[in-house]
Specification:
Helix content is about 65%, strand content about 5%. Strands 1-3-2 form a 3-stranded antiparallel sheet. By secondary structure, the protein is mainly α. α4 (about 50-65) packs antiparallel against α5 (about 70-85). The protein is elongated. It has a domain at about 1-90. The chain has helices at about 5-10, 15-30, 35-40, 50-65, 70-85, 100-120, 130-140, 150-165, 175-185, 195-205, 205-215, 225-235, 235-245, 245-260, 270-280, 285-295, 325-345; strands at about 270, 305, 310-315. This is PCI domain-containing protein. One of its GO terms (cellular component) is proteasome regulatory particle, lid subcomplex. It comes from Debaryomyces fabryi.
Amino acid sequence: MISNEVADTLNSHLMSSIEKYLYLKQKIYQNIESEANQIIDNLPLDSDNEELSALMILLKIEFILEFREIGIYEIESLNKMIQLSGAFPKGPFNVQNNPTRQYIRVKYNDLYNDFQYLFNPTITIFRFMELVNKKLTTLSNIPDTEDDNVIDLAVDLYLKVVDYCLLAGSDFRKKNILKFLDETLSISQVTKVDSTIANKFNKKVEESVRGLFTLLNEEKFILFKQYEAFLANSKAPIVKRIAKTNSSLLISNFLENNISLLPKYYMNIHLDKITQLFIIPTNLDIEALVSQMIISGKLPPGTCIDQMEQTLIFGEFQPDYSIFDSHVQEVSEMVDQIANLIHNTNL
């Protein structure tokens, strides 16, 4: 059973659907261990009010993704709810006319992509940078708006984007995306960006995240204790969940980012020294990790492992720009769209 306070909120004729949603979300996230599950399990998912129904479905999806063990029952439930929420809203999505509908559409895309890339039982590996691109596409499709709730949601998406960049391993797409994010949001605070979204983002972003982002963006080594502190202290429920259930993968990704910088300083390096340099508390198979990086093109062409000497020998980096052309064009268009959104929210 839900409390009288929650019941009164749901039945109130003085509050809009989005106000009810935001109130319940705050209430739930303040009471994760107690009242939260009762509220979630008694949400009016089939309300006659389409907007309220969609928002309640999205609230339940988000809670399950972030806090509940996802078994067969939860997967079936999530799939059904995603289908229901995906069918709404219908018709045109003009945020000036109905910001609540725009909020629903953006939130749906956000949660749908999280589910597909992080929690779908068919996935075998996290493709964080593909998920980042999905988030940026969602952001680029938000029309010009002065609605505080939609702007706050955009800020939350940017926070996720930055978190996922920190969780991702070495990826050729990351460099340009980090640069774009810094220019858009002034995360490293080298230059000031005067926009509503940037200002709100910088008030919410954690300092540990800012520090790691700056190191990544400047292509500097990250200490494992810094990365470990980010995972342990993150306020983002999905980050905490992934860190708890996939720690070995995240350690591999951490190492990938650092190993990809080694050719700037070494012509060759003994495999054991990599472990000593980055001090990781695990028996991770460095040779297997480096081999996979070579196969995936994450190290300069010609890089190889001398197995007799247990040494990683770096090739000379000669980028083939032709393979980036289509991706660069795609990212450039996306960047222009998001930049226009940032600019127009301040007009």
